User: What shape does this take?
Amino acid sequence: MRALVYHGPGRVSWDTVPDPVVEEPTDAVIRVGTTTVCGSDLRILGGDLPQVRPGTVLGHEAVGEVVETGHEVHSVRPGDQVIVSAVSACGRCEFCRDGHYGQCHGGGGWLLGHLVDGAQAEYVRVPFADHSLHRLPANLAGDDAVLFSEVLPTAYEVGVRNGRVRPGDTVVVVGAGPVGLAAVRIARLHAPSRVISVDLSPARLAAAARLGADSAELPGRLIADLAEGPGADVAIEAAGDPESFVLCTRVVRQGGHIANIGTHGVPATLHLEALWRKNLTISTGQVDTFSTPALLDFATSGRLHVSDLVTHGFPLDRVEEAYEAFARGGETGALKTVLRGGRG
Assistant: This one.
């Protein structure tokens, strides 16, 4: 098959590699119909995740068709259309039983495109298939469905849920990339009084306004007013940048919540000398994807609209162009960039 292979920081190539096969009785092999590029993939290319070994096929989000299963897989069978979760869950360990799949101690967690070959390929092997695949609803297109692999669960679980967004809250989302914008959209389900999106890119601020932010702002007067006034009830950090994290600590009110979504590749300073009296709750997290079924229900019932998060599409064999468009999203306007293909 053809796949995007990582060769070390800054180096990838579209190569021919062996087709994946069922290695464990709990595996499934999926023919990839739709996949996508994630900010974590850019972090890998930047050398921020040295545990990713050269030779690894990248990508951890996909929609496709089951072509083969191990004899211990019971929830899907060949021919089923499925959403591949970005997180693999053994389903047996203490963390999985509590729904903390990202912390799986039974051999799961973030595997695809990280510790094992991933989904930016014509086929992908999915470990622990019974707990890591979701049947594709008939009325959900592949371009939309791939958002349920990681982007939407991350925005909800690590951002909106950890931030404890409640009716009437003022919510500030720092970072208007795909996950930050998904947090804007999902926060709306909790009836906040105001959702403010903050970014440095005019194109992404325009997207935030289209996606439901009450205000879409450069860091400036509005943010200063929040910092000097009552403050935000919830600040969601979705940029993975030290300055963005500091901004969240400035705008949040006493007793408020900071929910860190962003993947940080360098240290961020925690100014406890200014924060210790504020009674803040600061949360971080690896997405678990336990919320995927509930989010799918919201989408199929018409309560959650996600199509406008996808802005660019490419054939799978143009994956390197997709990376370029996504990496320059602040200039290109690219949000979620999907790749369509697979081998028949």
